[in-house]
Amino acid sequence: MQKKYDPYAALRFKEFNFFLIIRFLLVFAWSMQFIIIEWEVYNITKDPLALGLIGLAEIVPAISTALFAGHIVDQNEKKKLFVFAIFAFFIISLGFYFVTSNYVYDNFSSKYILIAIYSLVFAGGFVRAFFWTNYFFISCINSQQKNISKCSFMEQFYLAVSFCNWSSICRFFDSLDWN
Question: What is the pTM of this model?
Fold first, then answer.
């Protein structure tokens, strides 16, 4: 007797559902944070090149430490490293909150604020190398071998939805007349 095809079999795993929700929320929050940081840098510099340097400051440590991060993740307990990476992103987010506060703008020059922003972006790129390497390990662990293609589809679907939702929300607020 042939088994019935179940496209939602991956969603029957409680850990996988929790994992998808965490991924959705993190991607949504990172997208918001990245737009806000770009906005702040552009407000300070009025230079489009400065926006490009944000991406460079993040991608250089992410790519240069990816192999090292893969080795570290492979040798250690994955869930603990995953939680540590999320905690590190939380600390970086708090750093962004502080750097963009009125206190910092009142007491420091824009040069030091930009250095702090780029440093936090650089640290985020380093943490991102560990997070995404670890993410793929955990993703494979949470999905049973027979459901790996369904899990992969659901992961990509949630990722696309989180990006599209943030983009739609930005467009909605941009369309409002704030004056």
Answer: 0.74
